[in-house]
Design brief:
By secondary structure, this protein is α/β, with parallel strands linked by helices. The chain has a single domain (2-165), classed as Rossmann fold (3-Layer(aba) Sandwich). It has helices at 23-33, 47-61, 79-91, 106-119, 149-160, 162-165, and strands spanning 2-7, 37-42, 68-72, 96-100, 123-127, 142-146. It has a six-stranded mixed beta sheet with strand order 3-2-1-4-5-6. The termini are far apart. This is TIGR02710 family CRISPR-associated protein. It comes from Methanofollis formosanus.
Length: 166
């Protein structure tokens, strides 16, 4: 089983559900990954979004959200602090891992990408067609896996010299 790490912002209320507008997309990601455990990274204000994710997930799948932990980031706009907390959490889990950076502050999502690259953890986000209100339209979501291999190749080329790889 995979442990899914997810950045979670607060979103804005979706007038259709009253939940954070991002809850459906994040629940969709959990449904796609089918993790054994989920670790949510967010602020102390993200708890309502996590409740919304659990509700959306249950409506979507008919199942209860897998076991989860919420890790509160001390400053969601401090890139170094986000990296430190996320890195420790990812290191502390054995086995298969995945990181979803669909939601959160710019610093949170940048930190998630950096930690995924450091640990070579698969990285993804949920895309959806957006309505006129800017909110993703339920039913149009799809999981987009991100390839970090171009970055790994670049690092290797710089380490051994570009000539050695050609």
């Amino acid at each position: 089983m995979v442990t899914l790490f997810m950045t979670v912002g607060t979103g804005r209320p979706d007038p259709r559900t009253g939940r954070a507008s991002i809850a459906h997309g994040l629940a969709y990601s959990v449904a796609c990954h089918r993790p054994g455990e989920v670790v949510f990274f967010g602020s102390d204000q993200s708890a309502a979004t996590v409740r919304g994710i659990a509700e959306e997930y249950q409506e979507m799948t008919g199942e209860v959200l897998p076991p989860f932990n919420s890790v509160v980031l001390p400053d969601v706009d401090d890139l170094a602090a986000c990296i430190e907390v996320m890195d420790a959490a990812v290191k502390g889990v054995a086995g298969r891992k995945a990181i979803d950076y669909t939601s959160g502050t710019k610093s949170m999502t940048a930190a998630a990408v950096i930690v995924a690259a450091l640990h070579q953890v698969p990285l993804s986000l949920v895309e959806a067609r957006r309505g006129v209100d800017g909110i993703g339209i339920s039913g149009t979501e799809h999981l987009r896996e991100q390839r970090l291999s171009p970055a790994y190749t670049r690092v290797l080329r710089e380490q051994v010299g570009a000539d050695a790889l050609e």
